[in-house]
């Protein structure tokens, strides 16, 4: 793994910490938002670190993914940045809903496409993890217990940054078998 991908791991872990903290707050009042403005800066930082990690991950994997996977991953990164922009707008006293909602919908859809377009070089569990993350993200709401559904996004990307997710080619497997590795 490249050293730059540790930035993404840090972003994923920070994402998990932020959403755990948000999930520990009391549920939001009807028509309001949950308390958690102290988390906005950390969440924006987590998103920026995750996007940097995603860029480095996709650059490292670009020879093994198709065009649809590359485009859907680019949309995932852009969509999650929209959510960061929405949080920034909220920290300035504005309404984050339009920006966050668009980012949320695009994240869900692009993660679904990404999980389906990775293809055979990638292990089943890695594609399933991305799909599970997209499904959790689809039901995410920061207003109540559903805020816990944000955690798989940070977990998913931390794992993808840390663990090799491509299958070994037959040629490399034959070489390893000859070397008894």
Highlighted features:
181 residues; 69% helix; single chain; transmembrane helix; 0% strand
Strand content: under 5%
Cα gyration radius (Å): 18 Å
Q: Unreliable segments (pLDDT under 50, ≥5 consecutive)?
A: 175-181
Q: End-to-end distance, in Å?
A: 20 Å
Number of strands: 0
Helix count?
A: 7
Shape: elongated
Domain module count: 1
SSE pattern, N- to C-terminal: HHHHHHH
Give average pLDDT, whole number: 84
Largest sheet: none
The class by helix and strand makeup works out as: mainly alpha
Helical fraction equals: 55-70%
In summary, what is this structure?
The protein contains seven helices and no strands. By secondary structure, it is mostly helical. The protein has one domain (5-178).
Describe the structure in your own words.
The protein is mainly α and about 180 residues long. The protein has one domain. Helix content is about 70%, strand content about 0%. It has helices at about 5-25, 40-60, 65-90, 95-115, 125-140, 150-160, 170-180. It is elongated. The model is unreliable at about 175-180 (pLDDT under 50). Keywords: Membrane, Transmembrane, Transmembrane helix.
Blueprint (SSEs and pairs):
Layout: H1 5-24, H2 40-61, H3 67-91, H4 97-117, H5 124-138, H6 151-162, H7 170-178
């Amino acid at each position: 793994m490249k050293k730059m991908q540790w930035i993404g791991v840090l972003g994923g872990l920070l994402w998990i910490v932020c959403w755990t903290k948000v999930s520990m707050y009391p549920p939001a009042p009807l028509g309001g938002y949950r308390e958690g403005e102290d988390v906005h800066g950390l969440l924006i930082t987590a998103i920026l670190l995750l996007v940097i990690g995603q860029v480095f991950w996709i650059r490292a994997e670009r020879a093994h993914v198709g065009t649809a996977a590359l485009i859907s991953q680019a949309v995932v990164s852009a969509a999650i940045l929209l959510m960061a922009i929405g949080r920034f707008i909220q920290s300035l006293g504005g309404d984050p809903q339009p920006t966050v909602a668009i980012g949320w919908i695009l994240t869900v859809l692009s993660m679904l496409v990404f999980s389906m377009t990775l293809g055979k070089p990638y292990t089943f569990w890695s594609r399933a993890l991305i799909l599970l993350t997209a499904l959790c993200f689809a039901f995410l709401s920061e207003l109540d217990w559903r805020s816990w559904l944000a955690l798989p996004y940070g977990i998913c990307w931390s794992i993808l940054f840390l663990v090799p997710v491509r299958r070994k080619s037959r040629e490399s497997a034959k070489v390893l078998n000859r070397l008894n590795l």
